[in-house]
């Protein structure tokens, strides 16, 4: 195919043959202009093509779609990511300390504390609890979580009105019955530990029988216990123990039994199987672990002054720092220090009874303070005239000293289950006692068989 631009000289030659020169030139110019318009766009069309608007964002979206990437429009921008920081409560920590370590201002702390009565409870800290702070990019507190334990979470969240709202999140642990038994060879603590009991459960068992058994004086080799309690699990992992449900303790051939009962008011206490309270007005000993290093003796030879001086109490030798409990409900009438007594606490129980606790390492109560039975009032020490860490414990009736090891047995117990509540008591406790008995039967049978074999031999 021939190039259409090349015939132009032939066209000029034909024009020369038929037209005068001037006419031919004019006609040639016109023909050249016509040919030029066939290859070049008009200015108006070119202007329209160049003036079309270009939408860059639309083009970006088209390019991203072609590449398989989804674009995010400006109005769909994700919210700023919060910074999380977890802090554990240490001994001596205050809420202000935690906020300071988290980098949150005191102003925000006060705003949170003023948001309601629930927030004010944050000021009461317990070592081991965990706080989680959630702050934005400016360091402003958006939410605060308090993990009291693995089952309870308290949350405070900033709302749209710039105020904090409160929420409590609780989980339920799975509970299973556990059973342990042991024969005492040297001490309750060793026997309980070997049987797989925690220290707190051993102490709880001692507390149940504290009005009937003096665990510093009465325990003998061959004593036995059988205890049924709850174990708590969360997500298949053991997280702790629940309370003792039923327990029996054989001391010097005499067996004591107790069962836990929750009354109609929601209060839990321990009772004998027939509904009598296990709790006397006074516990037998004001310490859980210890030994009697000196008995009540009006004619004792004093270990320091080497003279005959009345020993109007009982001395319990125990490690320094061992908790000392109030023997019964009452009011602190004296708490101080003297050269002979060291740190001391005196408690009045009603009109007739006073208990005294001497040589304490630390006092935990003040004069005039009300105390409950088994409340910690101090710790064992060796202050004042003392040769070593021990508690000197006195019991006075109408102003006269009595032997603390024997007087408690003569005092009345606390109130028993009223007749109007006995049906409820039986329906709740009889299944527990029957379950404990079922656990005990194989052990009783085994001991009986062992005794028969020993007799034959």
Notes on the protein architecture:
- It is found in: Cell envelope.
- The chain has 457 residues and is an alpha+beta fold.
- The chain has 4 domains: 36 residues; 88 residues, Nuclear Transport Factor 2, Chain: A; 133 residues, Nuclear Transport Factor 2, Chain: A; 120 residues, Glucose Permease (Domain IIA).
- It is built from 11 helices and 20 strands.
- Helix 1 packs antiparallel against helix 2.
- It is globular.
- The N terminus is likely disordered.
List keywords for this structure.
4 domains; 457 residues; 27% helix; alpha+beta; Nuclear Transport Factor 2, Chain: A; globular; 10-stranded antiparallel sheet; single chain; 20 strands
| Alpha plus pi helix count | 11
Terminus-to-terminus distance: 131 Å
- Tell me what portion of residues adopts beta-strand conformation: 25-35%
- Overall geometry comes to globular
Q: Indicate the low-confidence ranges by residue numbers.
A: 1-19, 33-59
Oligomerization state: single chain
Residues in helix, %:
25-40%
Pfam families: Csd3_N2 (PF19425), LysM_OapA (PF04225), Peptidase_M23 (PF01551)
Biased composition (Basic and acidic residues): 73-82
GO molecular function: metal ion binding; metalloendopeptidase activity; peptidoglycan binding
Keywords: Hydrolase, Metal-binding, Metalloprotease, Protease, Zinc
Summary?
The chain is α+β, with helices and mostly antiparallel strands.
Produce the secondary structure layout.
Elements lengths: L7 H11 L2 H17 L5 H8 L5 H11 L16 E6 L6 H8 L3 H8 L3 H4 L9 E6 L5 E7 L4 E7 L5 E7 L3 E10 L4 H7 L4 H10 L15 E11 L2 E15 L2 E9 L5 E4 L19 E4 L19 E4 L5 E3 L4 E9 L3 E8 L3 E11 L6 E2 L4 E5 L9 E8 L2 E3 L1 H4 L14 H35 L1
Antiparallel strand pairs: 1-2, 2-3, 3-4, 4-5, 6-7, 7-8, 8-9, 9-10, 11-12, 12-19, 13-18, 14-15, 14-17, 15-16, 16-18, 16-19, 19-20
Helix pairs in contact: 1-2
